[in-house]
Known about the structure:
This protein is of the alpha/beta class. It is 65% helix and 10% strand.
Amino acid sequence: MLKKFISYYKPHKKMFALDMLASLLISLIGLGYPMITNKMLNEWIKNKNIELIIIFGMVLFGIYIIRLFLRFFVQYYGHIIGVKMQAQMRTDMFKKLQKLPYSFYDNHETGKIMSRMTNDLQDVSELAHHGPENIIICSVMIVGSFIYLCTIEWRLTLIIFTAVPILFIIALVLRRRMTAAFMDTRKSIAVINASLENSVSGIRVTKAFTNSKKEVEKFEEGNVMYVEARRRSYKAMGQFHSSTSFITDVFNVILLVAGGIFICTYDTIGYPEYATFIVSISLFISPVMTLIGFIEQLQNGATGFTRFIEIMNEKEEVEKEGAKALEVNEGHIEFKNVDFHYDSTKDVLHNISLDIKAGKKLALVGPSGGGKTTICHLIPRFYNVVSGSITIDGQNISDVTLESLRRNIGIVQQDVFLFNGTMCENILYGKEDATFEEIVEAAKKANIHDYIMTLPDGYDTQIGERGVRLSGGQKQRLSIARVFLKNPAILILDEATSALDNTTEILIQNALDELCKGRTTLVVAHRLSTIKNADEIVVIANGKIKEQGSHSELIKLDGIYAKLYNLQFRTSDNMILNQDLLDIE
Length: 585
């Protein structure tokens, strides 16, 4: 992990070297004051050499001006290095997130992912800047102060330095508690972010159901968890800082007693040397305390980087070595004995075999949870089959590149996701290099162009977060325009009209019928009236194919499909309806 962390310094090695050089000079300048103090007390004041006192005072003042600029350089450019490293890590994480499979997002909440990318990496940035700087400055100051103090009184220096191992033993013991406490804090912040993101996204539902109180209660659960995690971390920090501060207080006692004994008994040190020693001891205590205090920042940064690495080590979507680009000539799709499960406990699909001819429309129907949407997700390889194979024009989709596979597939879902931006930008998502004329043509085919032209800003109209300013039908038509622009050979319609009213459904259905022309189409629908004209209908229940044929053939069969179809066009009481649905499942 350390090697990975250091690798982020490489693009900034020149500036980093200058930053470390400036830090080194700051340390060396810090050693100048006690040396001049020693000379002043022992020689210049004793000899009443006012001229040297003034000269070296001016020299010291000039050196401190230099240190002023050095400190500015370290603070400014050091932080810039840290921020650039943070930005690179954030970019790397974002790119990584783009490559992770659907299964990762099934198990990780958006808010928690955002917490790793923001809060955690902010602390990593601070560590990246202050870590090397503190180590260099403190190391130089400790070694330099040890050598200098030995020239004043080596025995007193050794007595003081015996406390150093005690300090670091305490630091190491308490470090483990701090590590665990800070990691818990990270997790609690992620829980709060996840709850916040979820609540804000669903604020309209919350208001509609007047459940604000419930949302506050849910948020407070995470808030209480955060407070408790912080309490443990502050307790560990309190133990850490109080213990280390106690040791430094003992320094002063040792220095006072030992120095007094040396002056009174051994006569090995005079009052000027003793005074200089007292002034100079801060050269040793300050960097030691800085290093000890740095452990807190180290814990923050290390836990943040650990959580960053966890994301970076996640398994990406896999392509076979030597995978080739998919070449779609017709769009013939074939499932051969396909099995699939999300985990090893239960099969979601079992022995599915389908033959979808080029340019034909195949509809999937059946009870909820039967595996219809899963079949749709397997074609663009959002999930990989456990056994069996899926081919497009004879090419196994496991042997082709994901980019070429998904480029040839268009998907229209019930839950439309639109990006915060303009009408034009959302349609353009289907084909980034499309001309404006192509965008307009796609909008016209999706029956959304006329509506767009009624808006004050036309295609430049902002649609709001997730298209909040649009109706359900308008969102759906915008997503259809996006697919028209993409112009894929294969089309997947996953309950694309089930959430719409009848009038809007007719309008959307006309756009979808236009979209399906000349494309191999897979349709998932609960409203069976929309798929009566499908070339073939397949009934999926409990992960298996129960029935297969045209609408008329399945009605004559009088099986599951016939029951589902009759239920949608029958007027009866709810008890009979519910019982029939239970019998089907």
